[in-house]
Write the structure tokens for this entry.
Amino acid sequence: GVTKITGVFKSRDSKQAEAFMKLLLTMAEDIRVVLIKFADRLHNMRTIQHLKREKQIKIASETMDLYAPLAHRFGLFRIKNELEDLCFKTIDPTSYKFVARKLREKKEDREEFIQEFMEPIKQELGKMNLQFEIKGRPKHIFSIYRKMQRQQKPFEEIYDLFAIRIILEDPHSKEDCWRVYSIITDWYTPIPERFRDFISVPKANGYQSLHTTVITNKGRKVEVQIRTRRMDDIAEKGLAAHWKYKEGAKQGSETLDKFVNWVRDVLDNPRPDAATDFVKDFQLNLYKDEIYVFTPDGELRTLPRNATPIDFAFEIHSEIGERAMAAKVNGKMVPLRQKLHNGDQVEIITGNKVNLNPDWIDDVVTHKAKSRIRQFIKQKQRKVAEEGREIWDKRASRGNIEISEQELNRFARRFKYESTQDMFFDIGSGIFDVNNLFKEVKQFKSTGRMEADEVEEVPPISDEEIQKNYFDAARSVGEGKALVINGELSNIKYSYANCCNPIPGDDVIGFVSRTGDIKIHRTMCNNAQHLLKTESDRIVDVNWARNLETKFLGAIKVIGGDRVGMINDITDVLSKSLETNMKSINVSSDSGMFEGIITLYVDGISHLNKIMKRLEKIEGVKNVLRYE
């Protein structure tokens, strides 16, 4: 039989968004609330294994999207890292275990290397009578996985798997941090573009440290972080550390106050009907990647990466954003949509009237800019719709036609509009001819019938009906399925998402559509992550059945040096050595390098991994990756 999918069809996204807004409102009044909330969320994630799989996915997705970035924004890095790792472990346990195992295998080598790297540095610091502690912990698991995905590299080619941290015991000063930096760069060669001075210019969450990446005599790249004990406490514990150093008890740190004021600012007059939009925009401002730009007077402003002069203008003041006409960056005129970079000096040139362009909504990245532009668009649409209504009222009056609002709603649906306001907007914009509406209404008044009564309003299908149709469809499907859904090998109708091509062995989740079928995605697929945010209550717990005999479509990317016979060697390995059928192969070459995308039929993830390892042994092949 088919197990009932409880709660799948009740959307709670808006309620979750409203709950998050309430948390922010409370937080803006008493910042201690956020510490309690983080402690509660961390406990929930640590004990999440006791919940049903679909519930685990929903909670982990919400935590990854909102609570982990918010923890980062408050400087609670230890909590942020643990939340991300726990979410990753829940959403994609296979990838989590892979990275964790690789880290364990390299632990002894890593500790030996750190000892060797730091030996001369320790001696120099001892001569200076500096009290210090050295930490050589690996980056947290999710950050390593994210780097592998972003750089399209295997674990072995990620050079900054760990960072060496040198912590100077208080009361050492900022100047001592620079002295340590000088010693390190005397012994090892620094990479200039990897240097970051977060002491002189702290991050928006108060984080302070010197970061540099150096190259050892053996050519290995190493990231080094230098900070005082106080800086380290604030980096690890964020908000809580401000109370330890008596900065929060009285007036709070400057950084903390700025952020709380910002929260209050974005919460000003939120639209009650758009909680989900609000949270989506708020997420944009929990940025991890920041840039630092300056006003013409030299005042520092922090913005998310990819911010534009439009974002900068709204950051200064909403009126400046609304009246922005042009921008100067580093003394040169630039388009308002151009992306800003670290260190840019930005000047906004304004006019005397509102100059908002609705098209800017796709270019800006800050909540303040998006919210104001969206509000402007709504106001403009409302005004045009009112003009369209006036046009209709005049036309109806000239034709001696009277019609109720309920009847107008039917005609709006007759012309494929969701509401009369949408219809009147098109009339006001000149997109829809008011005479077409008048003709239909006149005919209706004469005959009592619309041109096509079959377009009369159909009541929306209830969740119960959808559920019934869903299970009816499930029972009509044949046997021999590859998935266990909600714990049973059932006949439920499903298909595999083309965006990620899941194969047996992948961690997967299912999403129920209103047409009654299920789409299967890999849990870390970008589209799946989007659906987790927007359709979280349609998740179905799915697992692969055992002893499958079906072939599945997979894809890999092969990168290497271009040479005569390379393609022939690859196809020989696939067809002869591994007896694997290919569906397609697409190859491009440039500057002596080639890149090939191969789609092929496999039994599952272990089969695909075997193929990838075998291809890596071909002469000239540099890298073989799973391709989505």
User: Anything to note?
Assistant: The two ends are 34 Å apart (CA to CA).
